[in-house]
Amino acid sequence: MIVPSRGERDTGRLVECLSALAQGGSNALGARIVTLEPGATETAVVDPLCGPGSVVMMSPASAEAAAAQPWQKLVETRRFVIGHLPAGPGAILRYELRRP
Predict the structure, then answer these.
(1) 92 and which of 3, 45, 61, 83 could share a cystine (Cβ 3.0–4.6 Å)?
(2) What is the pTM of this model?
(3) What angle do CA 39, 42, 43 make, to 5 degrees?
(4) Residues 6 or more apart from 46 whose CB is under 8 A from it?
């Protein structure tokens, strides 16, 4: 999403930006930590920056998370799901969320 300047007069452009924001879009980059659900094979993450087309870049922050082999399973508005092998206790993952 392109952020309009303070002096933007094109209402079409302003409406486009507001619509993108209402759908969770921005050029923002969010970085957070998530603990994978112990014993589960997927973990849902709620993030207000997430939207259709978002890219989740993950990096294991513990050996347990690396062993769980996480991958991006599903991306929706304001949430995504991480698929993984059954996670052990303390499986901590750092992720960055990017919007196109």
Answers:
(1) 61
(2) 0.71
(3) 95
(4) 78, 79
Dihedrals phi, psi of 23, to nearest 5 degrees: -95, 10
Q: Yes or no: say if 96 and 30 are a contact pair by the CB < 8 Å rule.
A: yes
Q: Which of 29, 87, 34, 37 is nearest to 54 (CA)?
A: 29
- Enumerate residues 6+ apart whose C-beta is below 8 A from 84: 36, 40, 41, 42, 43, 68, 69, 70, 71, 91
Q: Give Cα 44 distance to the centre of its chain.
A: 10
Interatomic CA distance for residues 2 and 62, integer angstroms:
36
